Amino acid sequence: MGTPAGEIVTRTVEAAAASEVRTRLEREGFKVFAITPPKGEGVSSLTRIGGTGSRTRVKANDFLLFNQQLAALLRAGIPILQAISMLRRRATSVRLRVVLEEVEEAIRGGAALSQAFAAQGTTFPRIYTASILAGERSGALDEVLSRYVTYMRRSVGLRRKIRGALAYPTFLLLASLGMVIFLTVYVVPKMSDLFAGFGSDLPTPTKIVLAISGWMTGNVFWFGPLVIVGSIALIIWSRTLPGRLTIDTFMLKLPLVGSLLVQLSVAQAARSLATLLAGGITLVESWEIAAESITNLELRRRSSAILPLIREGQSFTESLETSKWMPELALDMVGVRLEQLTTTLEPAILVVMGGIVVLILLAIYLPIIQSISKGPMIGH
User: Fold this and answer.
1) Which domain holds residue 16?
2) Which of 21, 234, 255, 328 is most buried, judging by how many CB atoms fall within 10 Å of its CB?
3) Are residues 12 and 118 both part of a single domain?
4) Pair 24, 59 in one domain
5) 67: closest CA among 179, 185, 151?
6) 3-class secondary-structure state, position 131
7) C-alpha 216, offset from chain centre
8) Is the pTM of the predicted complex or chain greater than 0.85?
């Protein structure tokens, strides 16, 4: 800024807004050329999650459809406020309609679109509010939204692919467990009276299965509630930060599953980073926000740990190497690893659960087969 004496100086002023700074300095006789906010007011700070917004996110499919329509309306030249109002009235999701109503009110009050979305807390991911902010700064909001729609399509498609790939193994596992429980709790006790006539001359597998079945049926009244309470406690603990971190760290150590999680995390971070960089956001801020898109907390922790190295001037590639989890060619290997996982899980479940079922059936029929084989010898 320029002083009344004609000197060019720089001064740090604390105020609530840039307009307040300009008014105050001009009142004192200074000529203000530019006002630069502190570094903490960058994209990462402006899009940081607030505490006043709701923490229930909109469904991915509804959010994707909304952004597709918003990008089309903006590309057609419709003003932002009018576009938000139109989409709010047409929204089929009650949750999205309520959120858009709050966003519309914030825009009418003078807030920017990015600020209105950021005020919703965790309802919208930071990459979304950061992309909108970048679009507002560059004047190409429709292009930024189109890139985000492409990003969302790939993310939703990947999630669908994972769910579809794991659906059959999950069903197979549950069906096998149900069969094992039915045989152990219902069928084996029915056969125990028949086995009582054989005395102690029973095969070892039959004795083992009878012992397990007897213990389960005799302790079902306390074992069942114990399993239910333990499962609820595990679910609650897994939703805490230490619990999630422990589980995510353990999952990374599992063979094949761990490598798949790493490569999925690479895909998430790479797509987020590419979307943010294309919007003109700096590398440091882009990586800070992209790291939050990683669902595995342990990998997210390692990714966020390299931010000081990047700020200190170390190259991005060298910083990633220090995180010790980013594999080479990971994006190309995600589909291969997913196929390997599903093709390995299905036969593994079949072999393990099929072996248990065969063992139970063998324990049931083996005494009967032995008695039949001994019958002719006794009659002779």
Assistant:
1) 1-36
2) 21
3) no
4) no
5) 151
6) helix
7) 37
8) no
